[in-house]
Amino acid sequence: MSTKRKAVLVVMDGLGDRPTPELGGMTPLQAANTPVMDILAKEGQNGLMNVIGPGITPGSDAAHLALFGYDPYTNYPGRGPLEVLGSGLETKPGDIAFRSNFASVDKDMIVTDRRAGRVFTPEEQAALQSVIDGIEIDGVQVRFLATVEHRGALVLRGEGLYANISDVDPHETGKKILECKPLSPESKRTAAIVNKLMIEANRRMRDLPLNKERARHGIPPANAILLRGPGRHDEITTLKEKYGIKSVVIAGGALYIGAAKYVGMEHALVEGQTGTIDTNFHNIALKTIECIESDYDYIFVHIKATDNASHDGNVKEKILAIERTDKMLGEILESTRDKIVLVVTGDHTTPVTIGEHACDPVPIVLWSSQMRSDCVERYSEFDAAQGALHTIRGMDVMPLLLGYAGHIEKLGA
Amino acid sequence: MSTKRKAVLVVMDGLGDRPTPELGGMTPLQAANTPVMDILAKEGQNGLMNVIGPGITPGSDAAHLALFGYDPYTNYPGRGPLEVLGSGLETKPGDIAFRSNFASVDKDMIVTDRRAGRVFTPEEQAALQSVIDGIEIDGVQVRFLATVEHRGALVLRGEGLYANISDVDPHETGKKILECKPLSPESKRTAAIVNKLMIEANRRMRDLPLNKERARHGIPPANAILLRGPGRHDEITTLKEKYGIKSVVIAGGALYIGAAKYVGMEHALVEGQTGTIDTNFHNIALKTIECIESDYDYIFVHIKATDNASHDGNVKEKILAIERTDKMLGEILESTRDKIVLVVTGDHTTPVTIGEHACDPVPIVLWSSQMRSDCVERYSEFDAAQGALHTIRGMDVMPLLLGYAGHIEKLGA
Hints:
alpha/beta, Alkaline Phosphatase, subunit A, 6-stranded antiparallel sheet
């Protein structure tokens, strides 16, 4: 493998689909006008992919870990830590991460509003963040980031913390914040710290001036935090450690940014990138090209709009999301054609006809300007079945990409 | 996966074949008239399956464990325990199961007839069973069931029993019953119990009135048991524990019923179901439909006739068995079409030209009324090679069936 190329993975979330009556039995991908993907299919190698395994319906987060080359059965830390990491609150191995709500409680810690009225000014968020972030309990440091509305991310950092603990959120109003209990002996200390944190956060929040101000406007006070979805940032071998590569994620959704950062990617911010059909595809293309031209070896680009449309059962929007991604790929290829190895695929199937993830494999195309092609002429679930990649698994994608891009050393002499 | 379906696995034993001169180079499956299977192939996804692994010739019992999702290299207890379980003698984890013969010995325990003349009335079987069943030796309980002719099933139940012991059957007349020896240190106690059992069974059997009666008719006495094929019912995670499903087997042969019960299936008895070409296909269809309509989630249907014909080198009968199965599938589909996910396959290849199991993969079709199809138009070993499933393993069948039927939880969020 003489010259190295940049490895580019483009994932359209929930891309895979089933025959759709509204489209005369075609899938949205078949119905979409995709001249660029069709050229990739014609010039590259195609296949079907069971992202986790045959018959296994992938969640998006576990699916992405597989696409990054990590076994989701042993490396999946739960959605919480990935969302937290994606929200901008950094974690490191050993940390326990939670998603968090600002909530309202009475003086007996009985929950009166699980979202504290939902309305928060940036100033209120900053004030609340400043009293929670930095709390220390029994040598464990609390990190906190207010994110959107009543939502936030919280991290416990210290020795000997484990995430196998029960929930504190009673999940309904009129009930007291629950005692956090260890669900395994090793988690005893973590549960005790969470219980102390509930009280300490309430102590620091309840008398803040902002709560008097909220009361004057009839808005419930933010005087407690509710934590959910605890997970541990486990020891994980980063992509840098595994392959010696510098990698970057270009994504709008916190979950995908978080999954990518979890395996060691940097995050490249794109102006106007969102998780919807209105994301700025042109800016994503420009940023992708910029990353390819810079010193990144691996660039992961995530498009969420396909999955949103699928969950909404919106056939037209799914087709539109695919067609816009196709145009974006054209922009990227125009200036980087001979510098990259490209994979275009999905992380799971979400048939618009059922609006939920399903176990059906997804199409995948592996392309570079200097590789063998196969007999496939169009990019679709049906055509891909005839391709030279046959059926692969999600965990095969990273070695394939990096292998063809010259980033994996020969084994043996 | 919003609506759940019933998962149905139909196995034609020894289905796979090779080009057959008698059929102008076609396989029996190619030569058979199979309109229903052809529709399944056209509407579903096809592939080839290495039931255990590439190049590995499967035994029927190990093959079925793989088809049920169990690794036969770690979960196969030997043929004995599966036959015993299939014969109707229940076993549980920790039990040691043997197949057994009634035999004739002289007063020095020298074998004079390994099958004690083969002829047994139901009354004789009952009398012999009643003296062996219930023996207790050093805290170990003996369970015994007389089955067909001189044959029976025997189970040792107690603490610390292991199956790694030598044979007691000298396999020829004129030789003394062999001393059972432990083949590993942990089996020492089991071997000692078997040796005591040989003597105790002889003591209880030799003076039975039925042996005086047999002597009067010149029939050899049934005054000993010969045990063979010991195996341990190991701890195994049942299908219920693995997937939360209720499962059932519809089969004529003890080995298949036993393998299915070993992983936790119930057995649905069908009037007229045998292991031959004369099995009642119509009744099998009716019972399958009944199970689909009841609360079973997974229904396994086994057709043995294809394998018998293959072992006999009987091309016409193999074709007939396939065609009768095809008709049976039509009956099942007629009333359950939109309620099931269906797999039709074989457990191994038995070419009629060689009459023995071979390592060639078998064709498989995965069908439901709402899935992507592929380019295959006919159900055969040759056509299946073009299908979207490509090459899978036996252990992939259960996740595929249950995944498409909505019985496996999503991994991740």
